[in-house]
Design a protein that fits this description.
Length: 727
């Protein structure tokens, strides 16, 4: 009975029309019977791994046919990929954060085994492969130990077909021999078929059949003894060398069709089993320990009491819930076992929010502002309290004296620290050299001029209008600092002028410019810049954290082979995605809760609307970020390129999404572009909920939801297209 049959398998990498495309399998024929070991030998790069990937249903032939356990791999109902096969890839492809026991239990669960059965199998495999202690983390195991764990993971569910890609690399000879004996024993007592690739050609003597592969074709497929006899050699290595020399020097698959080149001396595929048993006879007898292992291997396959060949129905009947639990616990364990990752996930949002609230929006302090007051000979005169009093005589007379001192007295220290200079030139020089942020200048007749303007208005001396002004010279290189100083100087002047007016029994309004800002429709006079920025900051954080986490997890899993191995075990990409979405959603929910609690209770951020509307929008945005991360992970093969893409898109979005500068300040065409970014409209929506208390029925709020919805659908479509292209 045939376990695997490849007929005229043809596969290339690259575009079909590209004349230089890489042909890896060139009309290859291959046949593996049940109850046998098939040793696939060949130089590095000859296409062994590609062939195995096609057999397990992870890659597809461009032409030709493959039949595995009676079905076509990758087709519904074939059970391949799935638990009918056990696959040990060339890379370790295990989750490093798992302990050895967790690894075996993880694979057992995704193969749909009951806990009882996994426990039983783990005990046997642990003894057979001499695995280290249960709780040793895979990442802390030696290369050889990891390989044994990987081998156990491929065997845990008693597959019908076992595919081992270089399982013995890096193992000591004793262990290599034990693994081979185990395979020989198992295949002789069950219908298990094994395909094994190895660079140690001689160890393949123990296989029932050998396929010598070179340049994408099988040069020969026969029993080891027949191959050695045919080429008159005493060992397989020489036989392979002779065959290669006959075939030519090329390392690459050539472009001619090789359909008829495979040398087959086996009369019928079904006879391999018999030939295999001949070989087994030629193998030196097993030591007593091996005999024990033989019994054990027999029990591994027989003691379940079930028929070894499973029905497809049986295979498909395992509980999705159990598989989902396995995937979820993998995700959570991976997360918990990486302290740096945990800190990043849960402390980073706190750190970011705290630093945002502490660093942004506060009034600049300890600014140094120069003062040149020509009204007084010595600035000490200004510290005389009597100077800052106005004497009211009658309704026509109100004495003002050295009134600049009164202004300076009112110029609060919280606005700026006053530095007094003797002359205009000294202060100017100090501002030029950056010692002060600017200076205020009072002319020597400031008070008289002010009085002249106040009392004589129309008849005042024209020069008085000029000398009654407080002249301010600022270093305007820092917009926020000078904006603050200007605002505070105007406020101080208003207060000063009002007081002078009331001391002189004049209407206060005389001191004001005729414009009044009444109670705001929304917000308050105390509203700070942080209130404007906060929604955007939180949304960009949630979006890009989800992007980074998703891209990192998927790329790591793919690079380490865990993704591929899990798919070969029969988990679908959709299940993997679903498990990630559940994990990521829980993380985002916690992040949202911690952010909202922190902002509300520690930083007293106001929310006039519904928390549910805000959290809902944040979660959807996080979901969009997650899909963006997935898209990046589909198209980027390495972490570095993924980081470039994530960071490269982060900065333009931050700059143009309206959190740093109002969109109204941008050119029209840029505004249109900015509205297309994923968090521009949503952060406006959140701002409207927080500051205006608008509900989801308001167009500016539901448009936020709409914008995220459009992003989610577009990213989802792009991911599906990407997955199809990259398949
Ligand atoms: N995704 C890919 N795109 C392009 N070329 C590829 C891809 N995967 C493999 N190849 C090329 O195909 C050839 C066969 O690769 P494969 O991994 O199947 O070889 P192998 O026989 O398993 O080698 P080794 O024994 O070193 O693992 C190699 O030249 C390899 O560079």
């Amino acid at each position: 009975m045939t376990a695997v049959e490849v007929h005229s398998g043809y596969k290339y990498y690259g575009k079909a029309k590209d004349p230089n495309k890489k042909i890896v399998l060139n009309h290859l024929n291959m046949s593996v019977t049940r109850g046998s070991i098939y040793g696939l030998l060949g130089a590095s790069g000859c296409g062994k791994t590609t062939l195995l990937s096609c057999i397990v249903g992870r890659k597809f032939l461009n032409s030709g046919e493959i039949s595995v356990l009676g079905g076509t791999p990758g087709t519904p109902g074939s059970g391949v990929p799935g638990p009918r096969i056990g696959y040990m890839p060339q890379d370790i492809a295990l989750v490093e954060e798992f302990s050895i026991k967790e690894t075996i239990y993880y694979f057992g669960r995704i193969y749909g085994m009951s806990t009882e059965k996994i426990r039983e199998r783990y005990k046997l495999l642990k003894e057979l492969l001499e695995l280290p202690c249960d709780d040793r983390h895979v990442g802390n195991c030696s290369g050889g130990q990891q390989r044994r764990v990987s081998f156990a993971a491929a065997m845990v569910h008693e597959p019908e077909l076992l595919i081992l890609d270089e399982p013995t690399v890096g193992l000591d000879p004793l262990l290599r021999e034990r693994i081979w004996h185990y395979l020989v024993d198992t295949t002789s007592t069950s219908k298990l078929a094994v395909i094994i690739t190895t660079h140690y050609i001689e160890e393949a003597r123990q296989a029932s059949c050998i396929g010598l592969m070179r340049n994408g074709i099988l040069l020969a497929e026969d029993t080891p003894i027949n191959i050695m006899e045919r080429f008159n050699c005493t060992n397989l290595e020489d036989a392979f060398l002779t065959l290669c020399q006959k075939h030519g020097p090329s390392e690459e698959a050539d472009r001619t069709t090789h359909e008829s080149h495979t040398i087959r001396s086996i009369k019928s595929i079904d006879t391999i089993e018999d030939v295999g048993s001949d070989i087994k006879k030629s193998i030196p007898p097993l030591s007593s320990s091996h005999n024990e292992k033989k019994d054990m291997s027999k029990s591994l396959y027989e003691e379940s009491g079930k028929p070894i060949t499973r029905t497809i129905k049986e295979v498909l009947s395992f509980t999705t819930k159990r598989r989902m639990n396995a995937l979820l616990s993998k995700n959570f364990l991976q997360m918990i076992r990486q302290p740096a990752g945990m800190v990043f996930l849960f402390l980073y949002p706190i750190f970011q929010l705290v630093s945002f609230y502490i660093a942004i929006g506060g009034d600049p302090k300890d600014l140094r502002l120069g003062v040149v007051n020509d009204e007084v000979n010595n600035i000490q005169e200004c510290f005389n309290r009597s100077l800052i009093t106005t004497y009211y005589h009658d309704e026509y007379d109100c004495d003002l004296y050295k009134i600049s001192c009164r202004f300076l007295d009112q110029l609060n220290r919280s606005v700026a620290i006053q530095e007094h200079y003797e002359s205009f030139d000294d202060a100017y020089k100090a501002a030029k050299t950056g010692k002060i942020w600017g200076f205020i200048y009072f002319s020597d007749n400031f008070t008289e001029s002010l009085q002249d303007v106040r009392d004589n208005v129309r008849d005042a001396n024209p020069g008085s209008f000029h000398t009654s002004e407080i002249k301010v010279y600022l270093d305007k290189s820092d917009q926020q600092v000078t904006f603050f100083l200007e605002k505070k100087l105007i406020e101080t002047y208003k207060e000063f002028a009002e007081r002078v007016m009331s001391d002189c029994h004049l209407p206060k309004q005389l001191a004001n410019i005729p414009i009044t800002f009444e109670d705001p429709v929304y917000g308050s006079f105390q509203d700070e810049f942080t209130d404007f920025m906060a929604p955007g900051v939180v949304m960009t954080m949630i979006f890009f954290l989800a992007t980074l986490i998703t891209a990192t997890i998927f790329i790591t899993d793919r690079l380490e082979g865990v993704w591929d191995r899990t798919l070969v075990a029969g988990i679908t990409a959709l299940e993997l995605l679903l498990a990630h979405i559940i994990t990521q959603t829980s993380i985002m929910l916690l992040q949202c809760v911690e952010i909202i609690l922190l902002a509300t209770f520690i930083f007293d951020a106001q929310n006039q609307g519904s928390n549910i509307t805000v959290v809902g929008l944040l979660m959807l945005l996080g979901f969009a970020g997650m899909l963006y991360g997935l898209l990046i992970s589909i198209f980027c093969d390495a972490h570095s390129t993924a980081n470039f893409m994530a960071t490269g898109s982060f900065y333009p979005m931050i700059i143009m999404c309206g959190i740093l500068w109002p969109l109204e300040g941008m050119p029209q065409y840029l505004q249109y572009l900015a509205y297309c970014f994923p968090f521009t409209v949503p952060s406006m929506a959140v701002r409207n909920v927080l500051s205006k208390g608008w509900s989801i029925t308001n167009s500016q709020v539901y448009m936020g939801y709409g914008a995220v919805g459009i992003w989610i659908i577009s990213l989802l479509l792009l991911c599906l297209i990407g997955l199809k292209i990259k398949k």
